[in-house]
């Protein structure tokens, strides 16, 4: 259960379970342990109807190569890895994030390059839209988030990150099927989609931190 008195918006769907069959075959990156809270800092993206239409086209085409692909239901751009916080670290962690991120303004990115990714232990494959403009501002945000992570002796973000919004995923390392011809076809869909240049120019308005079943928001100025 969520600790009483902890600020943030709860996620009623959160469950403490390691049964991968309940999550489409996904496997935890680390085992659940009572008192450990999986924590992630990211920029949320609220998908519009046109974006979902583009997503449907991309997933439909990609499924001709990998039928098990599932479309993402929520979209974001990561500013941290998923790290483990002890309960008593959450409040000071969020406070430090809020202080470091307070000066940042809203900004735009362009995410229009289709790319294939796998997670670190190769248990999942993703199709994503990589950022082609706005990289500098994202690195500035990551630098501040990394500073907070270092305060708590937690892993910082990847070196030379490929900032992206994940669109679809499947279990296992199936990157070989999706790269090459499939990737070229998906990129052609993006470039040929009506108003894609406008659609994939995204304004970021807030940063979020999810810790366990709690959400914390940090509006950009």
UniProtKB/TrEMBL annotation:
Residues 1-28 are annotated as: Disordered. It comes from the Eukaryota. Pfam families: HVSL. One of its GO terms (cellular component) is nucleus. The keyword Metal-binding does not apply. InterPro entries: Cyclic_Pdiesterase (IPR009097), Usb1 (IPR027521). Keywords: Hydrolase, Lyase, Nuclease, Nucleus. It catalyses: a 3'-end uridylyl-adenosine-RNA = a 3'-end 2',3'-cyclophospho-uridine-RNA + adenosine; a 3'-end uridylyl-uridine-RNA = a 3'-end 2',3'-cyclophospho-uridine-RNA + uridine. This is U6 snRNA phosphodiesterase 1. It comes from Edolisoma coerulescens. The gene is Usb1.
């Amino acid at each position: 259960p969520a600790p009483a008195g902890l600020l943030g918006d709860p996620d009623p769907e959160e469950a403490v379970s390691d049964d991968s069959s309940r999550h489409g075959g996904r496997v935890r990156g680390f085992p659940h342990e009572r008192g450990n809270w999986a924590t992630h800092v990211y920029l949320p993206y609220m998908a519009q109807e046109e974006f979902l239409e583009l997503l449907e086209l991309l997933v439909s085409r990609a499924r001709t190569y990998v039928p098990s692909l599932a479309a993402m239901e929520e979209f974001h751009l990561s500013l941290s890895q998923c790290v483990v916080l002890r309960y008593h670290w959450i409040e000071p962690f969020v406070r430090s994030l809020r202080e470091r991120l307070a000066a940042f303004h809203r900004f735009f990115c362009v995410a229009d390059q289709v790319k294939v990714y796998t997670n670190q232990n190769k248990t999942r494959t993703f199709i994503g839209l990589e950022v082609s403009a706005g990289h500098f501002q994202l690195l500035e945000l990551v630098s501040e988030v990394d500073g907070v992570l270092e305060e708590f002796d937690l892993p910082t973000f990847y070196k030379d990150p490929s900032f992206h919004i994940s669109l679809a995923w499947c279990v296992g390392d199936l990157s070989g099927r999706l790269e090459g011809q499939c990737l070229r076809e998906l990129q052609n869909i993006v470039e040929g989609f009506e108003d894609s240049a406008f659609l994939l120019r995204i304004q970021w308005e807030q940063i979020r931190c999810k810790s366990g079943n709690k959400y914390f928001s940090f509006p950009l100025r």
